[in-house]
Amino acid sequence: MIPLDVFGSESLAADLLEQVRWRDGVECPRCRSDRTVKNGSYGAFQRYLCKNCDRTFNDKTGTIFAHSKVALRKWLFSIYAFLRFNTSLRQLQREIGVTYKTMHRRVERFTRALDAPQLDLVGPVEIDEVYVSAGLKGRERDQPSRSRGLSTRGRGSYEGDKPPVFTIVDRGTGQRYVVPAKSADESTVRLLLAGHEEESLTVYTDGFRAYDPLEDDDEFHREYVVHGDGEYADGDVHVNTCESHASLARRWLSPHRGVSKDKLTQYLRAFQLRSELFRKPGREALKHAVEATL
Ligand SMILES: [Zn+2]
Fold first, then answer.
1. Is residue 118 part of a domain?
2. How far, in Å, from the CA of 14 to the mean position of ligand 1?
3. Where do the ISXO2-like transposase domain residues begin and end (predicted)?
4. Which of 13, 2, 113 lies closest to 71, judged by CA?
5. In total, how many domains does the chain have?
6. How far is the CA of 25 from the centre of ligand 1 (A)?
7. Closest CA to 185 of 210, 209, 208, 166
């Protein structure tokens, strides 16, 4: 259920932020002291006085929502629609009546605040790579437009505006990850698979040579299918779940046509967050999204 009440009332939006932000108690954002007292209000937001450093702050201070003339309820709506419905920034900008620049800046702030996913792998794990068309949007205005979107044909490179993106599916935990990389080589693969507890992690891959060194390593048990030979699955050995997850990522990126490669990480982190809150009810999903930025 969409939390429409929050999007319609600034004080309910403020309540939601307050609940998420101070879930472990109120703390001064400047000196981290918990010796705080309520001290009037700042619009719809509670204001506090820190008895340690003697400065005031409010619910928004130090968050991505601070210093905005636009109501919090509108930003919460934007984040919700962005994550839930894959709404483009152009559309959002029209919906809430701000300039594209304002919308872009605020969503950028949101995506930048998201942490890299922690890969604690249990296994068996599928790993696969795709290449994304992502150039330097806005800095190469005179260049002819390139084809956009994810492509699996051919090997790309970060320098050549086709950065590799790895999809990893942990069949042990059910977690799925999408992680962009500078290059699709052995060291990147090792880095991605490093976080595992078991002595030997079972890894399913295709025949791409960057995965070959895993075979000589006791830490991994690698099995693979060779797509070039018309082989797509051999019992449990396949990367089909990776491929379907990659196609979801492709759809996620498509309304944001031409995400530049330096922003790709941020957009894919937002996609990761979207997957995490996919099954949560509206209000919980919104709280989770806000919490992820704190
Ligand atoms: Zn303080």
1. no
2. 21
3. 120-276
4. 13
5. 2
6. 14
7. 210
